[in-house]
Amino acid sequence: MGGAILSGLRASGADVRVTTRSAASAAQIEGATSTEDDPDANRTAVSGARVVLIGVKPLMVADLLREIAPSLDEDAIVVSVAAGVTVATMEALVAGSVIRAMPNTPSLVGLGVTGVSAGTRTTEEELAIATALFETVGQVLVVPESKLDALSTISGSGPAYVFFLIEQLTQTALNLGFSESEAATMVQGTFRGASELLAQSDADPRELRRRVTSPKGTTERAIAVLDEADLTGLFDLATAAALARAQELAASS
Ligand SMILES: NC(=O)c1ccc[n+]([C@@H]2O[C@H](COP(=O)([O-])OP(=O)(O)OC[C@H]3O[C@@H](n4cnc5c(N)ncnc54)[C@H](OP(=O)(O)O)[C@@H]3O)[C@@H](O)[C@H]2O)c1
After folding, report:
1. C-alpha distance from residue 252 to each of 34, 55, 62, 103 (Å)
2. Which of 36, 76, 161, 212 is the residue whose CA sits 20 to 30 A from 171?
3. Does the reported pTM lie above 0.90?
4. Separation of 241 CA from ligand 1 center, angstroms?
């Protein structure tokens, strides 16, 4: 995830310092240093930085904040993308402003959706800086922290739901006797085409669906079967399960 945001930031011309833990990972990233090669790499990188982006696994965030806290500038903004690590946890470990963010993987192609939540010490200007940071890789929604985990169950996990739907429809195409390549062309082309049509159209999804669905036609029959299966109810259950897991992660961080 850090790599995706780094690409966007560098493309925007921002001056970014990058650290990793292993020398092997640092070797893959232009200008990166590792704590394996230099135990002070993180402290050196954050010294003098206005924005410090934390992109390590959730369970590692607290130790990392303890490590860098003494080296942070007074006006440093600490922005974390770690799932489930709360503002309260981070504010207990650093003196200044902390912000939580929840990007998603389409950030890799500049089409991300990121939720951003201010901490209790965050000013409007600091929130605007964090928003601009994530706008280098897509769109940004500012939400209260109380809604960030819910946002994550939609846009954070959402790419996985889309890929899962693509997998399922591909299997159906295979079941109908198409080859892997034909199925991939039909399904991936259709998801991409429909998304692009929606993006370029003034009509909402309901209206675009209506335009594909002739009265008494074939699509109408298919949609009736999908409707009967209560997909909204299924998505309610799936997102509730993701939300419960986010709460477990927050309790253990
Ligand atoms: N994947 C997603 O869709 C997604 C979406 C939203 C948020 N997130 C969040 O993004 C975070 C990172 O996830 P990821 O999948 O990108 O993890 P990842 O692939 O393991 O990347 C973590 C990076 O942090 C580096 N690192 C670890 N400990 C470090 C330390 N002490 N000092 C400096 N660098 C250190 C790692 O270096 P090495 O490679 O050398 O270990 C690696 O480059 C997680 O907290 C996750 O919750 C992920």
Report:
1. 27, 18, 11, 21
2. 212
3. yes
4. 23
